[in-house]
Design a protein that fits this description.
Length: 116
Amino acid sequence: MNKNNLTPDSIKQLLNRSTAQIDSNTVERLRSSRNLALERHRALQHAPVQAWLTHHGLWTGSSSSSHKHKHVYLALAVLFSLCLYSGITYIQHDRDHSDIDIEILTDDVPVDAYVD
């Protein structure tokens, strides 16, 4: 077989011949690793959010190691809560002009307040 003439079929034949030279223990470990990778791939196809979290290192995929990342989840929850609270506070503070309205209606506002 010519090395410059590699086709998918010739590569397949080379790989099939070379697997006969690998010991059975290594073949079994490779098979179990492949099966595990296929299971994870199938599971992530049905859970896009989990796939995104796994891709960014926020989810390990196994429940035994998920306790290691509890501090990350807690930090994200606290950060989200703080952002939500600050947004709500900003909106409420920005629209609360009732004390100024009362002063305008009762003519208690100094003249300098109108000159802006």
